[in-house]
Amino acid sequence: MGVPFKGRWVLHDVALYAAPRVTKELRFTGADLRTLRRFVSQQAREVSFEEDRVEDLVLAVNELATNSVRHGGGQGIARIWREGDMLLCEVLDGGHIDDPSVGRVCPTPDQQTGRGLWLVDRLCDSVQISSSSAGSVVRVHMCLA
Question: Fewer Cβ neighbours under 10 Å: the N or C end of the chain?
């Protein structure tokens, strides 16, 4: 089981613990982002998430999925599940994240990219990233209370 924590971990060639078998899952491409947002919203509401937290989670996962489409091979898998008082959602894709500080530094106004993971880090209670040549997993944690 996961342990609540605050902060970002970038793990290279180290897998995160496996999602439980009762995880809800949705495979997506760029054409499926609207469906993905509805999926995340529905799952969050089923566990009685507060509405502003639902919106934060939907925005964060949409940013992750958009990154998967743009940088991770054009497709991905979103998984969501509950652990105690936390709702976890992860996005998996075939991309590779090289920069261990990704998402931690505020993008400059003239920067063309780099806002997605920075935004995700601010919207969620914690973020984990595991990346290797086999692909990447970005997992976000949000407290239910």
Answer: N
